[in-house]
Every structure is written in C-alpha cells, then in structure tokens.
C-alpha cells in the first residue's frame, strides 16, 4: 500500500494520518494520436473548515437594456443559484487519486491498463472517504476516468460519505497518461536499464514522453471495447503536456461550468492526469512540475476565487509535501511527505530489493485501516456508509491503541 503504508523510519505515516483525521460529525508536441486523538494543527484546520461557506455562483447578466418585463423575469430565473450540498465548508474542489491497484502493488507501469483495486486499495479508498466525511465536505457531483481503479475508489468513497446518490461522470479524457511501451514493465527494472534520471523524465517531466507503444502490444487500449468510439484518438504514448491537452478539454467543458453553477466537485483520478489538472490550476511552471508528485488516496482540497484560481491556504504558505501547492492535504503535509519519500524509494532506489508495497509492515497498516473503517475480512463487500461515525467508544479506542502499542504497532 502507499497511502497508508509504513514509509520509513521515524514517526509512521499512518500515525500522522490518524492524528490529522477530523473526528467531528458536523452535519510541436510529441503526443501520440476509529480515529485517534487529533493534534492541535488538525483541530485548527477542522475549526476553520466548520466556519467556511461556499461562494455564490456567478450570475449571467442581460446584455439587452431594452428587454421587456418578460425577459427581465426570465433573467431572474436564470440567476437562480445552485443549492450546493456543501453548506459547512468553503471548499469548492477536491482531487483524489485512486487506491492501490494490482500493478501499483507490483511496481509496474500501468497507463490505460484496467487494473483492479487490491484489498489494500479498497481500504485506502474507504479511509479517504472517512477523511472526507469528517472534514465536513459534501459533493454535488464526481468526475472520474473510465478505469475501474478510479470508478471503484469513487464508489467506496461515496459509501463512506453516505453520498452514493450524487451524479458520477466518467470520461476517457480523465484516464491516466499513456505510458507507451513501458506499460507492464517493472519500474525498478527499467531504472536499472535506462537510468534513474531518464525514468524520472519519462514519469514526471513536462514534454518528454516514453517510447511509443507497439501495435501488437498485449495491453494496447485498442483491444478494449470501451474505446471503440475513440479508436482514432488513442495515443501511442503521452508526455504530461499531451495529458494536459486532453484533460483540459474536459476541465473547460465539464468541470468549470459546474463550478460556475456553484457546485462542489470531486475529481477522482490518476497521478499524472491529476498532476496535469493541478499544474493548470496552480500555474506551476514546466520546469517545476517534475518535482510535483501526488500520493494515493489522500484528498487535496481547494478553495477557489471568482476566476476559479486557488485561494491561499489559511497559513499563507505552500504545502510542505511538494512546496508548490495552495491546496490542503486532508491527511496532513507531513504524512504526505513521508508517503512521497517512500514512493520515490520504491521506484528509484535500486539498493532496496524489497517490494515496499507488500510484506510484514503492510499487515500492520492493514490492521490500522481496518480499525479506521470497522473490522472486516472482506472490505469491498462489507464497505458501508458511516455518515454518523460507526466507530468504537473512546474507551475502546484507548484499549485498542494500548494493545497495539504493546504489540509494536505504529
């Protein structure tokens, strides 16, 4: 697992997660064609969020001063604001990367390949839903890709929030970037062959795509019936520049109009697809975007101004995890920083033979996640809505933590 896995020595990322989870239940291009005690920082964030109100939607003015009373009445009708469900916070937009999939676990390049969530990925998604539920946020609609690791993450998050009823829009333009001929290959093995810097440029740079996918590749998207109507648009590979080119079309045509109506929007996506949208939203430079990475299953929430640009965080600083974002990590900056450090080691540190996505430490984190969302042996089948917080009592939490500490749990 990534989003809630042990990410090295020192204070654990999972501990950081549960110390920041809110507990209040306040209702030329090269493109191809039960939570533990909160720390003071978390209390401050949740206190701020509880006083937020969403900004009013933009009004559509009449351009004809000679309009009749009938047109004037029509104008008033058009000015009616959307009644957002998000009445307790001023957040307008939230990005969320999917939970662990089978190829995340195996450290393989995924791209458009439709890999399912693992059991750990299901738990990651559910904990993300719990964080969102306790933040006080409510969404009016969700936008996601055509790939099931995102679709299932969306479903699980909405279950935990008790919001299964809201619209979910799926589109290929929100798919992960196309990794070309790297798809299916082990990332660390590619690093050994091509070198760390080359792989880093393929994965994170602005305009350097990986080698193009061969026509007979076993995981070619053209073999998938979901793309039968867009076969001519399937790329052979993509840089981040290519990814933004297609994702921005969807952003401008679908997401921005929803924001203009006053809706609060959740975008559940993939790391590079979300990186492209965040780059566009934040105005991150082509040189700096190589340093921006996004963890799995940690919500990134934004407050936007009337031009749909990010409002500064309450502390006036950029996030500590990447150093480039004005959005707020619901898991906390320190936890995200640990996750990203661990992810870099998983891909680039060839001296580490162990797969950091699996193993003994992983079992510890699984138990902590199960504690967060309720014990279950089949997490996907028994995922349940917990809008009002179906957790242990305070005494049971303390007893559980004491037992865990005595067994060297994080």
Give helix % range. Answer: 25-40%
How many β-strand runs?
Answer: 6
CATH superfamily caption = Phosphoglycerate mutase-like
Structural class: mainly alpha
Strand order of the largest sheet: 3-2-4-1-5-6
Task: Estimate the global geometry from the Cα principal axes.
Answer: globular
Average predicted confidence as pLDDT: 79
Looking at the structure, the CATH topology is Rossmann fold
Q: Helix-strand pattern, N to C?
A: HHHEHHEHEHHHEHEEHHH
Number of domains: 1
Shape-level CATH architecture: 3-Layer(aba) Sandwich
Count of alpha and pi helical runs = 13
**How much is the radius of gyration in Å?**
22 Å
CATH class descriptor = Alpha Beta
Low-confidence spans: pLDDT under 50, at least 5 residues?
Answer: 1-28, 34-68, 72-80, 375-393, 404-410
Overview of this protein structure:
This protein is mostly helical and 410 residues long. The chain is built from 13 helices and 6 strands. It has helices at 13-18, 40-50, 69-78, 102-105, 119-135, 148-161, 187-194, 196-204, 240-260, 271-282, 333-348, 360-373, 394-406, and strands spanning 93-97, 141-144, 168-170, 265-269, 300-302, 328-329. A 6-stranded mixed beta sheet has the order 3-2-4-1-5-6. The radius of gyration is 22 Å and the shape is globular. The relative contact order is 0.19.
Keywords:
410 residues, mainly alpha, Rossmann fold, 6-stranded mixed β-sheet, 13 helices, 38% helix, disordered C terminus
């Amino acid at each position: 697992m990534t989003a809630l896995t042990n990410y090295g020595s020192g204070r654990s990322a999972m501990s950081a997660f549960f110390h920041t989870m809110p507990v209040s239940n306040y209702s030329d291009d090269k493109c191809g064609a039960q939570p533990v005690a909160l720390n003071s920082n978390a209390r401050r964030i949740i206190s701020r969020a509880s006083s937020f109100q969403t900004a009013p939607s933009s009004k559509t003015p009449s351009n004809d001063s000679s309009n009749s009373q009938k047109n004037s009445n029509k104008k008033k009708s058009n000015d009616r604001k959307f009644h957002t469900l998000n009445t307790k916070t001023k957040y307008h937009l939230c990005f969320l990367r999917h939970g662990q999939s089978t190829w995340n676990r195996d450290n393989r390049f995924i791209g458009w390949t439709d890999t399912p969530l693992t059991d750990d990925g299901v738990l990651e998604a559910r904990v993300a839903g719990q964080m969102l539920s306790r933040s006080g946020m409510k969404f009016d609609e969700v936008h996601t890709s055509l790939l099931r690791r995102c679709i299932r993450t969306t479903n699980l998050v909405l279950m935990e929030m008790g919001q299964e009823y809201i619209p979910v829009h799926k589109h290929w333009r929100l798919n992960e970037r196309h990794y070309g001929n790297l798809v299916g290959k082990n990332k660390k093995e590619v690093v050994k062959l091509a070198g760390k810097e080359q792989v880093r440029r393929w994965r994170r740079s602005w305009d350097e795509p990986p080698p193009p996918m061969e026509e007979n590749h076993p995981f070619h998207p053209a073999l998938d019936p979901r793309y039968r109507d867009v076969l001519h648009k399937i790329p052979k590979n993509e840089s981040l520049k290519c990814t933004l080119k297609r994702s921005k079309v969807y952003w401008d045509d679908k997401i921005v109009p929803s924001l203009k109506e006053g809706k609060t929007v959740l975008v559940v996506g993939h790391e590079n697809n979300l990186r492209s949208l965040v780059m566009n939203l934040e105005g991150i430079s082509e040189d700096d975007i190589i340093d921006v990475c996004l963890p799995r299953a940690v919500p990134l929430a934004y407050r936007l101004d009337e031009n749909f640009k990010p409002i500064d965080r309450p502390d006036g600083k950029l996030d500590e995890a990447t150093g480039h974002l004005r959005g707020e990590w619901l898991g906390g900056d320190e936890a995200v920083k640990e996750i990203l450090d661990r992810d870099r080691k998983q891909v680039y540190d060839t001296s580490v033979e162990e797969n950091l996505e699996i193993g003994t430490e992983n079992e510890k984190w699984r138990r902590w996640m199960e504690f967060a969302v309720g014990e279950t042996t089949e997490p996907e089948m028994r995922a349940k809505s917990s809008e009002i917080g179906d957790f242990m009592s305070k005494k049971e939490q303390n007893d559980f933590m004491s037992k865990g500490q005595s067994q060297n749990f994080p």
